């Protein structure tokens, strides 16, 4: 398919300030996206509030606005520039939330601006926990037992039904904000109050709700980076396995690509499930990150969540495989299909050929609790790392040790395992 003839000028929304959960990965992605659009002869208008980024350099966009990422500011820019379309999938959760507000308020329709990369329906279905649950059930996919609540009282009643421990998840939030792992009613009340506040602030309607789900203690967590084009061609770019079990945010977990302990049968089932997720969410042209939980005892699988955009893991998968996810997602949004885009590494095969790795890539997070002395150093569903290192090796041990040395924490060897007494003390603290 040729490039869409109706796209002469496209507005790209950046990720804004560097915060925990949303940092330079989105500058990396946004830079790729702007370059891809300009290579097609499309005029690029960039909105980003952070001048300390590569993407705001003059050569990456025809017009760059360093302004707050607010609906009223974005509307004024749209009025002035009159873009044909808006590309929201390169700026993380901030860009998606701003796009939802612009669309729901009628700004995009008023000025005739189309959404490319992800439709409003796809964004809302993926980001709204209740709608996502309904979509997965309609597709015949299993999720953890859960329920949606809009008040603390409803959460307490649901907690008694599901049983503890539980995971609280908020909608339209970044880096696990407003989420938490709770072991009793007191913790549930505290976390739900915070989650409802985050959900209400993030939701375009001003009212939010949260998902309460069973905690699949000890289950493995996996991610798939998936691309889909308008012709329904789908590729799995990379599989990623979390070293830590479900319950630790993926940004705070050591992750390995490709997945190391997944059986071939389970991997094929996960691939099939990923394709169904992409189609039921209706991601028509672009990339997504889909997370799964797998029971290590019997291979039972659950869908956890998906991001209908370029994510932190997308940047890792791009560097690990040489497959430029953000660039190709932008080209797909502009109307090309995977079989029309050449592979950047081979320059002979098209992008519809899935990358194959004969090496191992390990990502290790870096924390700075010494700078945030009031922060709780225990890891959970809210992301706390401030950076990460990536290492490549022929084997997992080689890549892991390379990454450990690259952390520059003055430890050249892995720490010893925690003693039983230490584990009991940590568990006792968590249950209080």
Topology:
Layout: E1 9-13, H1 24-39, E2 43-47, E3 63-65, H2 71-81, E4 85-87, H3 92-104, H4 107-110, E5 114-115, H5 120-127, H6 129-138, E6 146-149, H7 152-162, E7 166-170, E8 180-182, H8 185-202, E9 210-214, E10 220-228, E11 234-242, E12 255-257, H9 264-281, E13 286-294, E14 301-307, H10 312-321, H11 325-333, E15 360-366, E16 387-393, H12 396-406, H13 420-431
Helix pairs in contact: 1-10, 1-11, 5-6, 7-8
Structure report:
This protein has 432 residues and is an alpha+beta fold. It has 3 domains: 108 residues, 3-Layer(aba) Sandwich (Rossmann fold); 70 residues, Dna Ligase, domain 1; 143 residues, ATP-grasp fold, B domain (D-amino Acid Aminotransferase, Chain A, domain 1, 2-Layer Sandwich). The chain is 35% helix and 20% strand. The protein is built from 13 helices and 16 strands. The strands form 3 sheets. It has a 7-stranded antiparallel sheet, sandwiched between helices. Strands 3-2-1-4-5 form a 5-stranded parallel sheet, with helices on both faces. β13 and β14 form a beta hairpin. α1 packs across α10 and α1 packs across α11. The radius of gyration is 21 Å and the shape is globular. The chain starts with 8 loop residues before the first strand and ends with a helix.
